[in-house]
Amino acid sequence: MADTLLEVRNLKKYFPIRAGVLKRTVGHVKAVNDVSFDLKPGETLGIVGESGCGKSTTGRMIMRVLDPTEGSIVFDGEDITKLSGSKLRAIRRKFQMVFQDPYASLNPRMSIEDIIGEPLIVNNLANRKQATERVAQLLETVGLRADDRARYPHEFSGGQRQRIGIARALAVNPKLIVADEAVSALDVSIQSQILNLMVNLRKEFNLSYIFISHNLAVVRHISDRVGVMYLGNLVELAPKGEFYSNPLHPYSVSLLSAALEPTRKQKRQRIILKGDVPSPANPPKGCPFHTRCPRVMDECRIHRPVMKDVGNGHLVACHLHA
Hints:
By secondary structure, the chain is α/β, with parallel strands linked by helices. It has one domain (6-94, 174-314): P-loop containing nucleotide triphosphate hydrolases (Rossmann fold, 3-Layer(aba) Sandwich), CATH 3.40.50. The protein has nine helices and twelve strands. Strands 6-7-8-3-9-10-12-11 form an eight-stranded mixed β-sheet, with helices on both faces. A four-stranded antiparallel β-sheet has the order 2-1-4-5. Strand 11 and strand 12 (315-316) form a beta hairpin. Helix 3 packs parallel to helix 5 and helix 5 (158-170) runs parallel beside helix 6. The chain starts with 5 loop residues before the first strand and ends in a 6-residue tail after the last strand.
């Protein structure tokens, strides 16, 4: 579809479990288990869930840092899961990533000019002189000084390093940026600055974002739609306003009940889930959430629910809304 930038269909990622002297495969960790969604140009999709639910693995497959076990990723009309070598490199500059740790993602031995300019040189988008000019422009775009290009990562604060990471992602004029916990390592006051910067850049460059986070307040600030993952599965997907005012999946309800909402006059009753998250190496049959769900039914233990559109663009995988 012309109005769709990214189409993810039935995406799966299984990591083998090896044991014994011969390291034979004795099972699989189902990190991502059948995830599907679309992303429009200029849209921000927030993906939330507990640690280990498959959010980052999904983002890395979209970036083709990891190869999917099954499924398709159609970016800008082309299935990138079928690309490799020079064809993959040619399209890869259209999607970039901003990482969680702004220091670990920057080479400490390289100057800022080299860090930001390298993608331009590697992709033959500029010569050395043009790259220097572009780096200076990008640094000012993200709120730093052009003179900072001669400095090194250790000379900057965490927030400034993340701005450098964003500038590097912007260097090749991408259409999509995957932000994996991009503000979780920063102080709260700096988080708001980086979020506002990303919102402004989205408008200026017509960017699309996949914003991965465990922080529902942060996702609410930046996202147009919200997807909730649990145990490698996408269990709910809805426009932001619809999701925060009317969560349907019991897991989503429990997440929102735990979120701090200082502006609400009446806070939701805190829902404490019983038990632990099942192992992705041995997920339960039926609904993956049924072992902890406070509204579990017999059908939940037998049949896995499928995503259903319940109106207003609100999709949920739950037998309560079948």
